[in-house]
Each structure stands twice: as C-alpha cells, then as structure tokens.
Amino acid sequence: MSEKVPKAMQAKYDEIVALIEPVCRTHLNEEYAALARKLTARLARKRPSPLSSGQAKSWACGIVYALGQVNFLFDKSQTPSMPAAELCALFGVSSATAGSKAKTIRDAVDMSWMNADWQLSDRIDDNPMIWMLSVNGFLMDIRKAPFGAQLEAYQRKLIPYIPGVDMAQLDALIKQHGYLQVIDLPEDEEDDESQAGE
Prior knowledge:
By secondary structure, this protein is mainly α. The protein has ten helices and two strands; from the N terminus they run αααααααββααα. The protein starts with 6 loop residues before the first helix and ends with a helix.
C-alpha cells in the first residue's frame, strides 16, 4: 500500500496524520502509526474521498478506532490495549462520532478480521480467520494444506505470506516468472521396480 495521495487531498492527509502520529507513538506503537498513515492515504485516494468533509480530528480518531477494532485494541488482554473512551478522549472526539467514522472507514476499505492488510504483524499468525479458505469445497486452515495450495493462495493474494518460506526469494521468483506452479513429478521407475522385487 502506497502513502501517495492526490494533491487536492495532501493538506487534509497531512492534518490528519499530524493528529494520529503523536497518539500512536505515545500510547500505542510505531506499527499502529504506520498502518494509520497507510489507511489515511488509502482513504484520501478514494474518489470521492470521505476525508474531504468533516473535521480532521474526527477522521483521525475514526482511523485509529477502526484499526483498534480489528486489532483488539479495546481488549485488556492484548498489548497494546486501551479503552475506547480513552482513545476518543485523546482526540477530543465523542465515542459516537469515533464509532460512526470507524464504521464508514471499515466499509470503505473492506476492513475486517479476515483481511490481513490492516492487522498488526503479531496478530496475523494468531488470527485463524485470515488463514481459513475454501479448498475444493472444504473450509480449511491453508497453513496445513500442501505447499502447492499455499502457493496458489498466496499468488491470488488470499493469504499474506506462506509460513516458513523466504518471502523475498519467493516474490523475486514470481516477479521473474510471472506465475509459479508446483508440479508433481512422477517417481523414478527404477525405484518402483527395485521396490517391487524386494
């Protein structure tokens, strides 16, 4: 996801990010700040952009609130965590306004627990919803599927990565060859004959 924004939306983007950054850096973490910048840029690129109307502080709070919802920010057992009311108070926005903006944002970018684009990196491995796919009509955790199925899911952008694989090397191969496919090679006939004679 790029942080490029249209010139017409640059000032609004800058204003919103300037409100988000200190809250994330002081009360959350850098990864929340990075996700919030990307989300703000994505909203600024939408046509028409929802950010073009409304107060910057309302959008800033709504952006962090939406990210918090899909990353369990409001769950005390998670780190970082924070009550929703406390988050809203940091931006000087009511809970109703934050919730409304967060809903608008989630709908605009198809944000959910099943979408890894908006998840913190340490939440992705623990979120079974990201890894559940229908394979030949059966719902399964794709991490337990054969490598060929995982590769297909990754190339179709259905999963964020293939566990245990050097993704930089795999991405370079995909870029070089366009598309990769796992081919089952037939077993060596000599091995079959020697096993049959034993």
